[in-house]
Write a structure and sequence with these properties.
FAD-bd_PCMH, five-stranded antiparallel β-sheet, oxidoreductase, alpha+beta, FAD-bd_PCMH_sub1, Enolase-like, domain 1, about 325 residues, Xanthine dehydrogenase YagS FAD-binding subunit, Uridine Diphospho-n-acetylenolpyruvylglucosamine Reductase, domain 2, four-stranded antiparallel β-sheet
Length: about 325
């Protein structure tokens, strides 16, 4: 780890005023500190934002609002989340060990970097870490890599379980920077790699996520997060599915479906949703999940895996609550 300046602001304006191009904001530190130790990132300045007033878990008329500094464990266990939005609680509880969930913040979870081994090994090329150096995953070890949204420049998966659930529920993030506040859908916040895999999202330099807003959805109580991984303990997804259904007399009137572990960003599946609304069987709808997939040599199994993750979620939701 390289030397850096350290600052502890007491309000948001102070934090934004301190930020420079080579600054990094520190909340739980469960991603940033690891990357600094590996020298994947080496900020000149670290700004500890834990004293900022970015807390709160509260239902309001425009939806559930969650402060960016709320800890994952607290959000997962909160009654305003666990009952009305079980898919969020389940995604959080499947994300990490209890120790990490007690440290990691909601904003930090949404901004965590990929777990691609090439990205984390500074001795190897990586377009996401060092633009223009290449992507060894294209022909190397790519079992855990993406099959959706990839490019010749990058096939790294997005690691956040929470982001998949929030994209399915059409959540938005509130951002604040030197130019003021803005709000955007989380699905638009993330950027697929294309030719610029080092540009992962629309966050501007020195800008903070301040809040997550989940719009009201009366039938979100019938939702599930299914995560398939190599082991049940702390592990990242090979494939995951966040599914919510509006079910009446055994018929799906509406649905929300997004998947993770298979995409370079949290991946919404409108074709699967449309098929469910049209009355097609769960099997027929789930079969559409991997449309447009581009598997690499080692991860073609993810096509079937993501379809089965969706089918499992739908099967569980079809039963009595």
């Amino acid at each position: 780890m390289r030397a850096f300046d350290f600052a502890v602001p007491h309000d948001i304006d102070d934090a934004l005023g301190l930020a420079r191009d080579e600054s990094a904001f520190l909340a739980g530190g469960t991603t940033l500190v690891d990357l600094m130790k590996l020298e994947v990132v080496s900020p000149e300045q670290v700004i500890d934002i834990n004293r900022l007033p970015l807390h709160g878990i509260r239902p309001e008329p425009d939806g559930l609002r969650v402060g960016a500094l709320e800890r994952m464990e607290d959000v997962a266990r909160h009654p305003a989340v666990a009952g009305p939005y079980p898919v969020i609680a389940q995604a959080l509880l499947a994300s990490a060990s209890p120790q990490l969930r007690n440290m990691a913040s909601i904003g930090g979870n949404l901004l965590q970097r990929t777990r691609c081994g090439y990205f984390r090994d500074v001795a190897t090329p990586c377009n996401k870490r060092s633009p223009g150096t290449g992507c060894p995953a294209q022909h190397g070890d790519n079992r855990g890599h993406a099959i959706l949204g990839t490019s010749a420049s990058c096939a790294a998966t997005h690691p956040s379980d929470l982001a998949v659930a929030l994209v399915a529920l059409e959540a938005s993030v509130r951002l604040r920077g030197a130019d003021g506040e803005r709000t955007m859908p989380l699905a638009d916040f993330y950027l697929p790699p294309g030719d610029t895999p080092h540009v992962e999202n629309r966050l501007r330099p020195g800008e903070l996520i301040t809040e997550v807003i989940v719009p009201p959805l009366p039938w979100a109580g019938r939702s599930r997060y299914v995560k398939v991984r190599d082991r049940q303990s702390y592990e990242f997804a090979l494939a995951s599915a966040a599914v919510a259904v509006d079910l009446h007399d055994g018929e799906v009137r509406d649905a929300r479906v997004a998947v993770g572990g298979v995409g370079t960003v949290p991946w919404r599946l409108p074709a699967v949703e449309d098929a469910l609304r049209a009355g097609r069987s769960h099997e027929e709808a789930a079969a559409l999940a991997a449309a447009g997939a581009r598997p690499l040599a080692g991860n073609a199994f993810k096509v079937t895996l993501v379809q089965r993750a969706i089918l499992r979620a739908l099967t569980e939701l079809a039963g009595p609550r």
